[in-house]
Sequence to fold (281 residues):
Amino acid sequence: MVNKGMGQSPKRYAAIAGALALLAGGAAAIALQDGRKVGYDDTPFLPGGKWRVHDGRRPQPKVIEPGTSSTQEQAGKPPSDAVVLFDGTDLSKWQTDGGRPARWKVENGYMEIPKNGGTLISKVEFGDCQLHVEFAVPDPPQGIDQGRGNSGVIIMGRYEIQVLDNYKNETYPDGQCASIYGQYPPLVNACRKPGEWQTYDIVFTGPRFDGDKLVRPAYHTVFHNGVLVHNHTEVMGAMTHRALPTYTPHGEKGPLVLQDHGSPVRYRNIWFRELKGYDEP
Fold:
């Protein structure tokens, strides 16, 4: 089994930055919905189904009301065994592309993506985990489709749960908020209004490799604002844009990445718990 961490090499940061840069590109959208076009019709078909990667004709997730809003109080205070990555005070546990010091704005208990702030990468690495993240997309909203409140929560720098403003804003379903980006839409659209705090509670099981061979895929279980939107869903591979996801062998631990996609998305109260077996200390 490959069981070494990913390390902190510049080459790895360049690979993460390159993958994220792909997400900012794309060809003309084609699928007509509500008088505008979303998605693509020239991408590969996802395995085992009839939908292409980022297919605009894929059914939109049903919109639901997620329940009581938590605009002021933090929805998930960390338990005593959690590793807190951001408590609202500083960015000492983060860096940006290439290992440079983090440049995001910190105020009022949250951090916000500034213009040209760069992707944020945690200094600590982890694998199988319970992860809690709170975020708020900009209010008033600006842009449409993928250009509205875009960011991403990327575990191990590879496996992304999309952040996007999909409150009355349609996009290709496998790229909307709470999607496993480029693979699976959320079971429902549980987005809150722009400016309101939202939560992700994610149970992630990382892949395992034996040399170059994948012996176990990754899995995501995701709650968005307390609503189950992925139920132990098998991940097809690392996130990518307009291409089929694939696995590349890597270690059992990696950083958490928060994507800078040009929108002033806010984050707060970020923590994780490493998941171990019953008999592990």
Remarks:
- The mean pLDDT is 86.
- DSSP finds one helix and 19 strands in the chain.
